[in-house]
Structures are given as structure tokens and as C-alpha cells.
Known about the structure:
This protein has 288 residues and is an all-alpha fold. Helix content is 53%, strand content 1%.
Amino acid sequence: MTALRARHLRLVPVVAAVAVAVAGLLGAQAQAAEEEEHDPLGYVIDLAAVEDPESVADGAELYLTGCVSCHGLGGVGSPRGPAITDAGAASAHFYLTTGRMPHAAGPDEQPVRKEPAYDPEEIEDLVAYVASLGEGPEIPHVDLAEANLQEGGDLYRGQCAACHSATGAGGALSFGQNAPALGEATPVQVYEAMLIGPGLMPVFGPETFSEEELNSMVRYVEALQDVPDPGGFALGRVGPMPEGFVAVIIGTGAVTLAAFLIGSRRHGEAEGDSEPVRPADASEGTGR
């Protein structure tokens, strides 16, 4: 085996790893696109099941195994978690579909978005149970057909941009809290957040904005998530730092790899073309 071939074989695991990573990314994107096609507003659950007694009973069992240690029996609260007797279906749906609940870090830590801990049917049952505990905001019926994008932009810039930034990238708040980025929020989750005011966020309910205005703000947030990037990848839209980082790492890496491959090839060709030099015959030196 030549040295050039050995070097090329060492690159096979790297190429295979890159191919697997790309395939996984494309598969995840395809799955997300399929889910969005079937549930474009992000309801996840069947809204009719929220009032189903069977769902309420199943949710009560799930609550006893995964929620009661913090929120107490019947949702009355405890030192580890707030009361949820009047949280309503919207609050339960928001926290469960965004993965912010269950929250193992403690009541003083801000829950962050992550993969939901429960499947859609379990979320459906838990939402039904929490909704049965008392009065609270219902899961909204989002209607973007009549939403006014311009009005939504004006309202967003006046009420939301100070915390979530003009681009929806989020930002730091006081007391160690953060306004989350809105890039992954579904229309239903955006509407619910305005109704319940999670964390330090104020409540923007019917007393503050009309349904049309709330839908318009949801429509504008949806538009922020689909801003075209004529320069290429968005890279989080957090400024030139990641762009420079990518340019240095990928650009330098590509040049280094190209130089390595070219040098290896030339070195291999040189080894293959060279022949051992035979010592001169003594007879040639004497002319005999």
C-alpha cells in the first residue's frame, strides 16, 4: 500500500462522519417540515380533548407522577413550585409544548425551551387536567387570515422589541433572566405567551389588546422567522462575530485540507517515480 493511499484511507472515517451528520440534519428538517404542514399553527393536541372527562382522568394520573412534587396536590402549589389552580389550558399547553415543564432546576431558575418531555397525547391529558382545576386562559384560536402585518410590526416594535429585540433574537433582562429568542415559537405559543405572561413578561390579554391586534403581532413574529438571507446562511442573525468565526474556521480548514491533499499526492507521485540508483559497474569506469 502506497503512502498516498494510506493517507486517503485515513480520511474515510471523517468523510463518513460528515455524511452521517448531513443526512441526520436533512432528515430532521424533513420531519419538521412534515409536522409544520400538518399542524402549521403548532397546536400539537386535539382541542376538543381538553374537555373530555377521560383525558382529565388520564391527566390526573400523569400529574401525580410528574408534577405533584412541585405544584402540590390539586395544583395548590408548594415551596418548590407555584399554584396552578387558575393557570388555565393556555398556560399548561405553553409550558408543556415548549418543554419548559417539567423544570428540574428549581423555582428560582428560569425554565428554558427544550424538547417536550411528554408526547402529544400525554400533553393533551395534562392540559385537560390543569384546565379542570379552575379558571384560566383557554388555548387561543389563532387566525392569521385577517391579521394585519403592518399593524403587528408597529405593536411588536412598541411592546416587544425592547426585550425580544427587533429581530426576535431575544436579550438579557434583570435578575439574571432572559427574554427568549422567538425563532422556534409557533403561532399558538406566541399568542399564549401574550395571554399568560411567563416569567417577567407582562400579560397582553383582552384587556390590553383586541384579538385582531394579538393575531397581528403573532403574524409579525411569524414573518420575523422567515426573513430571507440574501447573503447566505443567517448564522443566528447575531452580527458579524459568527460570520467571521465561520470564515476563519471553515476557510482556513478548507485551505489547510487542500494543501495537505495536494502535498500528499505530490509526495506519493515522487515516491512512485523514483528508482534506486545502481552503483556504476567497475568495467564502465575503466573502459573495459
